[in-house]
Fold this sequence. Notes:
- The chain contains 23 helices and 24 strands.
- It is an alpha/beta fold.
Amino acid sequence: MSIWNKMNMTKEYRLTDWLPTTKxxxxxxxxxxxxxxxxxxxxxxxxxxxGAAVISRLLEAxxxxxxxxxxxxxxxxxRDFKKMGKPRMFFAVSAGSMDSMVNHYTANKRMRSDDAYxxxxxxxxxxxxxxxxxxxxxxxxYPDVPILIGGIEASLRRLTHYDYWSDKLMPGILVDSHxxxxxxxxxxxxxxxxxxxxxxxxxxxxxxxxxxTVYLRASSDHPVKTDFFENGVIxxxxxxxxxxxxxxxxxxxxxxxxxxxxxxxxxxIQSVGNMELVVNPPYPPLSTEELxxxxxxxxxxxxxxxxxxxxxxxxEMIKFSVNIHRGCFGGCAFCTISAHQGKFIVNxxxxxxxxxxxxxxxxxxxxxxxxxVGGPSANMYMMHGRDLKICEHCKKPSCIYPGICPNLNTDLxxxxxxxxxxxxxxxxxxxxxxxxxxxxxxxxxxxxxxIKEAAEINRAAGEYTKEVIFHHVSGRLKVAPEHTSSxxxxxxxxxxxxxxxxxxxxxxEIEDQRLxxxxxxxxxxxxxxxxxxxxxxxxHMAELADxxxxxxxxxxxxxDFTPTPMTLATEIYYTGVHPYTMKPVYTAKTKQEKxxxxxxxxxxxxx
Length: 607
């Protein structure tokens, strides 16, 4: 059965090139049963930038028959949950590429009018608390079928967490979802091991020895076998104790964050009622070869044909971009990247990156421009600890705050090589850097007393800065100082604002050089800022307004702080103290306080 030449692709696709989403598509493949059925809160885009596609293709590579049910209707007779029947192995559930509550609501808890992961960007394609809603429906319909949950929503809600939208502490998501097992973080390794266990006939309730999973067990069960993992067990305060005492929640968070960022983490256990949540330690980061494999599954790299004639905004944003690494060692207090993807950078090989670029170049609708060559932070590619034995004993959430770790290799030469190799390809007119850039890494000077290649590394940092500004900016270069106050930046785990000023001067100098040799308009440096972050007062925001006015920045890329599960800033917001010092921290909480702070961004507007 041929399918149209979707999206002006040179290659003709058949409907069976996508994983099935309906019973008819299952039959087209000649299957009479499915091994796994995945329910996703996002539209189905068969592309390595979308978790549901990656996980489904991985399961397919394990020899399993997999179907995806994207954005099922949860409000009627549940026909979308019934149409595929029962899988032979398990149901998989993911809320999608965002926490559903962040997807649905603004920082002021107003309902958003759009959803980038839904056809035509329409709102209402998934329920609030998507993971819990889908799982409860499936458990009611098929109580005997195991459910595996994962994705950002499940991952960051794996233990007791503050939920901003209901303004209360919630237990680990396994409790309310009644799912059987949770995979946190990037799921390739644990999911492969789960499949191996199932092939050996091991039931879900007996899967207690798989890293990077969370399971719920009766408190009366035997103690956790510490010989599975080498770094012992940490007993957290119970959910009930955290409900009674916010300081205990703060104490828990420090353990949770530190163990999430260690190479050799311990097992975490938290009681909730008469049950215990057991969080097994994470796997070591993927190797380059393993990450490359994740990008080489037989993706069509297109939305499913069922969306013909509709636009999915999230896909439009990334369809001509290339992701070159995972992870972030920034450790920003308000960010969840390291909690989900990890602190340690996992890099794709140059060969894998160029192969994907060449695949994009084969598309008839490719005009020669790559919208982004980057990752969680554009310029962390190939950065890692010089001596991994030092990293093995480190539990700091950031490698670059309060200062750049002397053990961190900040060499930008491999990334420069990637940029130049891409731009040397016939058919590439320009490759842009759409991901945010860490200017503190660019300003850092390697110490020639301790680092043999310091001169080359420092020269590469200057060359990288000039290369980006001359050749990889699409009119605007994004950076994220986030604030101007040293006090607030300290709580954010961000560098002092003086570093932004220095980088701004360098940007202007290089831009002047560029304009002497090239035609076109002046490029802009676009800073991102946050209001109402814990520790930020009206005085701090007034100082921010004054500072940015003197620098002649009319701020556009601004955001009011939104508490999201498993971030340091959220724990400060909820508990009122810093989990690492246990000292009180002021936070703007009322709508009036938050709006008053946000208005300071717009000093240039008369109203």
